[in-house]
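Database export, one record per block. Field names are fixed; values are copied verbatim from the stored entry.
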Amino acid sequence: MKTNKTTWRSRVASAVVIAVALIMALSIVTLGSSPAKKIRVGIAQIAEHPALDAARKGFIDGLTAAGYVEGKDIVYDVKNAQGDMSLAQTIAQKFVNDKVDLILAIATPTAQAAASATDKIPILITAVTDPVAAGLVKSIERPGTNVTGTSDLNPVAEQMELLLEIVPKVKRVGIVYNAGEVNSVVQVEMAEKSAKKLGLTIVKASASNTSGVFEAAQSLVGRVDAIYVPTDNTVVAALESVVNVAEKRKIPVIAGEENSVERGCIATLGIDYYRLGRQTAKMAVEVLKGKNPAEMPVQYQKEMRLVVNLKAAQAMGVTVPQSVIKRADRVIE
């Protein structure tokens, strides 16, 4: 009987040892296979309109294509400031408090808010016209800060030339813009400079918010022969107000970017914001892999697209020359 009891106890002890060993092994395996930390990206957008939305989508699609799958490898916290600078600052501070790994700032105001909130977290910018004038970087070639990315600087001079090609009799050009947006001020100055060379006179009308865009556009009636809409976040967010005035008064409108042409302007020679977003994503991948934003030059989009909206031209009483239509990358009918 003693022998049987000893054997039984020995078997129990062995079983206990094996069980403990299995538990320890499983614990080690579990610890070793714990999921990697997800990269957290805060995305701040100044306002909701097609161009900026396209840049955001291009950025996310670009990171996905690079292997950063949303929900698995990376998570996005997307915030929209709705044109409110104080809200943009609150959003930026939230990202800092949340200790995100990277910030994407879409448009100049949100980029300025993010840069003011942190000099530690890497900031990628896009749809920012002049990062130097906005105080975001020390130079285009060598930012020298935690900020880099892509600029949406438009070929304003070429756009003025396009306006003259479409409407040769134009003498006075109205510009609706927000004087509080650095990016818009830069574009207006560029337009004024090129206008002098082309024999044109610029007439400015400012709107500090979207509700003032209609009044600004209306103030140009009888004073201008055409209207130019730069890539101004405030005006583009309320673009229909400008288009309505222009159609009613038969004033041709040339835009700074493609989405504005889709929404009723006659034409543009400009950038593709979706592609700009994807270009920014490539830079973000480099930063996530350890590259220093301070040493990464701000990039521009080299290829411009000529887009024409014949339906809009008809609504504004304009016949677009065949020379323009034939070389257009896209014609909206």
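Remark 1: Residues 83 and 106 are 12 Å apart (CA to CA).
Remark 2: Residues 1-34 form one domain.
End of record.
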